[in-house]
Amino acid sequence: MQRRNFLQNLVLGTGGLSALPFASQATQQNLQCILSYAPEKDVTTDEDYWAQIQLAYSASPNLINMSNAGVSPQPIMVQDALTHYNKLSNEAPTYYMWRILDENREAVRSKLADLAGCLPDEIAINRNATEALDTIILGLDLQKGDEVVMSLQDYPNMLHGWRQREKREGIIIKYVNHNPLPCEDKDLLVKRYVDLVGPNTKIVHVTHMINWTGQLLPVKAISEAVKKKNPQVKVVVDAAHTFAQIAFKIPDLGCDYLGASLHKWLCAPFGTGLLWVKKEHIANLWTHTPSDNPLKDDIRKFEGLGTRSFPIEMAIGHAVNFHNAIGTLRIQKRLQYLKNYLLTRCLDLPNFYTQTSLKSEFSGAIALVGFKGMTSSELHGALMKKGRIYTSPVTWENIIGVRVTPHIYTPIKDMEKVVRVIQEIASALPTKP
Ligand SMILES: Cc1ncc(COP(=O)(O)O)c(C=O)c1O
Fold it and tell me: Which of 101, 218, 258, 432 could pair with 276 as two cysteines, CB 3.0-4.6 Å apart?
């Protein structure tokens, strides 16, 4: 009850409306209803609860959006906050952005730090996971011959970042190949990284959740094992898909550097991200927009971008409030349930396959599915044509299929429709002898 009252005050303001002066009455009522559910109540399959969450978004009723892993929509209250700050900024940009809104930057940093379980002084707010991770990748001091271990299934932007250093400075990249996927053997996942660590390894780059298939990697165990083999190794984590989707605290991962998107599972405005650098490493990481003292021990040195959208950054705080009103664990359980709802009903269909685990230790919201004999774009097209179901076609290394990703605003009815259309596609395919 205490937590609920606390959250209520946080989201709606004491006395009801003061913290969200820009939100409509419908939004306020919707939020009151969401907050009326006791936090300890298990709502994983409570469709009434999730119907209220759906109302908090403005998702299209004409398209079933199963491409949420790319970028997520914002709740209406976040969209309203953005409009509010944008209008305010346009009254006198330098005054309202640089004098008024900038005052709140530290409050946003603290909110993100609370959610991440770390010190505010370890968090820089930036535009996306690419910017955060490239700050690390391009900002670390490495010499010719130093080795970086990463995987072929890491995100292309990050592969490009390290490969630029390989071309330019002669560092050496060693690749883990996660094949086959999914992998439900924790020891094997750890061993793949440890085997490639040698005396010259300086960095191990790990994607917490592989974007193509949703494979969750045991980052903590990997960090411990690679550091045990070579104590000079530093671990960089790509948490684009786990921040605000999976319940964890950054310091518990045992890593040194981390980048995440906020416009994915946190549902913050498009073009928001987070860089985390362990306090003791901040001074030694170079910035990509240098200040008077690029090696100072202040996380804010990574925010010296020049003019950018303050309204976008300020609306992040409202996304955190909305997220906290639900809670990460609830979100994680619901997304796992929705994804498994789909997979368990399709696994026995002829020619159907998935490259995603059903186990919560190795997966989350993302499912990679396919039919033998069908290309990714054919399946993507069939889902769209037969059911206006929008997915993401994938052809990457050992991964072929479509990525189906529900979100917290997805009602079970939409998952039922996805299952029905997949069954329809299966029955129209010629069965192989
Ligand atoms: C694993 C992973 N890392 C990094 C990124 C880049 O994220 P952003 O678009 O926020 O730069 C993505 C984007 O989908 C991703 O899936």
Answer: 258
User: How far, in Å, is the centroid of ligand 1 from the Cα of 304?
Assistant: 22
How many C-beta atoms surround the C-beta of residue 28 within 10 A? Answer: 17
| Count of domains observed in the chain | 2
126 CB less than 6 Å from ligand 1?
no
Is 223 touching ligand 1 by the criterion CB < 6 Å? Answer: no
How many angstroms does the Cα of residue 411 sit away from the middle of ligand 1?
Answer: 25
Whole-angstrom Cα distance, residue 302 to residue 282?
10
Taking Cα atoms as reference points, which of 350, 394, 387, 388 lies closest to residue 372?
350
127 within ligand 1 shell (Cβ under 6 A): no
Tokens of 187: 């020891």
Pair (286, 414) in one structural domain: no
The finding on whether 259 has its CB within 6 A of some atom of ligand 1 is no
Mean pLDDT of successive 10-residue segments in the chain (433 residues)?
70 60 86 91 97 96 97 97 96 94 94 98 98 98 98 98 98 98 98 98 98 98 98 98 98 98 98 98 96 94 93 96 96 98 98 98 98 97 98 97 98 98 95 60
Q: Does 121 share its domain with 141? A: yes
Collapsing DSSP to helix, strand or coil, 70 comes out as: coil
User: Do 338 and 316 have their domain in common?
Assistant: no
Domain of residue 359, CATH code: 3.90.1150.10
pLDDT value of residue 16: 47
What is the predicted pLDDT for the residue at 432?
Answer: 58
Contact between residue 236 and residue 248 where contact means Cβ atoms under 8 Å apart: no
